[in-house]
Amino acid sequence: MSEDAVTEKDVRHVASLARVALADDEVDRFTTQFEEILDAFETLEEVPSVDRSAELTNVLRPDEKRDSLSPEEALENAPETEEGRFKGPNVS
Amino acid sequence: MTAQTVQQGELVTVIGLEVHVQLETETKIFCGCSTGDADEPNEHVCPVCLGLPGALPVVNEAAVEAAVKIGKAIDAEIPQETRFHRKNYYYPDLPKNFQITQYDEPICQSGELEVRVEGERRPIEIERAHLEEDPGSLQHVGGGGGIDSAEYTLIDYNRAGTPLMEIVTAPDFRSPAEVRAFLAELEEVLEYLGVFDAERDGSLRVDANLSIVEAAEADENGELSTEALESANRTEVKNISSHKGAEKALAYEETRQKNAIQRGRVVEQETRHWDESRGITVSMRSKAEEKDYRYFEEADIPPLQVAHWREEIEIPELPRARRERFREEYALDEEAASKLTSTKQVADFYEDLASEFDPDLAATWVADELLGELNYRDMAITELEDRLDEVARLVELVATDEITAKNAKEIVLRTMLDEGAAPDAIVEAEGLGKTDEGEVQAAVEAAIADNPDAVADYAEGDDGAINFLVGQVMQATGGSADPGTVNQLLRAELDD
Ligand SMILES: [Zn+2]
């Protein structure tokens, strides 16, 4: 990855996918940071690859109902709610 | 279409589909929350389907079984190993910011389903079918309620995590009518398998790719080369929710693109939204490209190895096979056979009746009378599930000549459906038991005695006069006589 340097355009694209608004000075800052983060991850290339545990397949559960949360519990952490629903900004 | 018949500038429509169907399971695909109707929003939710940190998805065995059944029904291959992936995108209908789906190792590969349009059968290739989770439901509130103008969004995650099967076809369709026929056939097959409920709101959603290519690009078998297909700009039409809607949306889109080409304009490659109420497709802001979804393996779910289930899981006789058997076994015409196999329940009910009564009579009663009256009331046979024995009793009353077919349909069946009464009670209450022969004969003689003008008209060759006399007898017997018999008795008397 280090040979393809992170560009300002990459940062703006990733920000738009994540629906994050970035100011111009933040774009500069994140361009440097992305580069540093990707470099750090490069280290993982040195870790030898290991096969996953072969026996672990078909982890399934029977089609049986389990208790759900109550609507109150479900909405407990929501910053805003209305009529039992999570409330968020307009999206398009 | 063959190359010989191609004319200069002739255009061919090319359509491929992505069909999303909700699978009928008790619980969601990765958690034990109910998939049933909820009274309140956010009632069937838990840490898994809300995407709370640390929650672990575990695959519902019934959803995998349903997928294998579908694979078997569409003649698909179930690979040795199949796995789940994360499709990353940020939209509030997905609380995790990714959807668990299957990317490059789907559970069903290369199947096919045959469609029949205007008597011609054609196989449609199904490239793949995979399992995934349904997102939650959004409401765009304020500002007129449009997606773009809304002030805010309300989210209900009851639907989030409902198992979906996405079925992807090759670009094998050449007309919107073929698409509609395919979707109807697919719904029938899925209902036969017991994995799908067409009556359920939102149980079928379709995205369609449509492009227009020069017919001259086709080879002598009418096949279009990959290059021809790829060089044409296509649009993806989203938000189609029924087979009728699919035909309308694609007919609109076909005309729109052909008009553009004929005016020398370029069809833009874009995503369009089918606006059902306005009957048009509208351009949507361009969406992410495939690479933007940054698919990667879902490490929380170990791979599935279920290829051997294909042999172990039984599936019922499918609609096409059953249709053909009905035509042979019960000597039905194509239309009747097709109506009688339209759902598994209808077909099962017909076979029950045909084993007891005359198969022709049973066919008329199920295909024409029962389905006709149900259709008129916008009812499905499933709503009569517990009362099919009453319908069978009604057919028995007709088969054993206890009531006339006309009364059985016009009074008994309609009262059964509208008022929920049982057939014998209605026959009793309405006095519909067939009048005995002596009474009918007496009424025939009385009608002749009381209507000398009609009798004279008949004698002079006015055959219409007999209908008047039949009417008089029917009235006198309260409609319980058989009109055919009355007609014969009258003629016997008058022709003497
Ligand atoms: Zn849940």
TrEMBL record, chain A:
According to the entry, what is the taxonomic lineage of the organism?
Answer: Archaea, Methanobacteriati, Methanobacteriota, Stenosarchaea group, Halobacteria
Q: What does this protein do?
A: Allows the formation of correctly charged Asn-tRNA(Asn) or Gln-tRNA(Gln) through the transamidation of misacylated Asp-tRNA(Asn) or Glu-tRNA(Gln) in organisms which lack either or both of asparaginyl-tRNA or glutaminyl-tRNA synthetases. The reaction takes place in the presence of glutamine and ATP through an activated phospho-Asp-tRNA(Asn) or phospho-Glu-tRNA(Gln).
Family, per entry:
Belongs to the GatC family.
User: What segment(s) does the record annotate as region Disordered?
Assistant: 55-92
**Is the keyword ATP-binding in the record?**
yes
User: Which species does this protein come from?
Assistant: Halovivax asiaticus JCM 14624
Q: Supply the alphabetized keyword list.
A: ATP-binding, Ligase, Nucleotide-binding, Protein biosynthesis, Transferase
Q: Which residues form the signal peptide?
A: none
Using the UniProt record, name the top-level EC class of this enzyme in a single word.
ligase
> What's an example Gene Ontology biological process for this entry?
translation
Q: So what EC number does this one have?
A: 6.3.5.-
Q: What is the designated name of this protein? A: Aspartyl/glutamyl-tRNA(Asn/Gln) amidotransferase subunit C
TrEMBL record, chain B:
Q: Which HAMAP family match?
A: GatB
Which organism is the protein's source? Halovivax asiaticus JCM 14624
What name does UniProt use for this protein?
A: Aspartyl/glutamyl-tRNA(Asn/Gln) amidotransferase subunit B
**Domain Asn/Gln amidotransferase: where?**
348-494
Q: What's this chain's function?
A: Allows the formation of correctly charged Asn-tRNA(Asn) or Gln-tRNA(Gln) through the transamidation of misacylated Asp-tRNA(Asn) or Glu-tRNA(Gln) in organisms which lack either or both of asparaginyl-tRNA or glutaminyl-tRNA synthetases. The reaction takes place in the presence of glutamine and ATP through an activated phospho-Asp-tRNA(Asn) or phospho-Glu-tRNA(Gln).
Write the Enzyme Commission number(s) for this entry: 6.3.5.-
Q: Return one GO MF term.
A: transferase activity
Q: How does it assemble?
A: Heterotrimer of A, B and C subunits.
Q: Which gene encodes it?
A: gatB
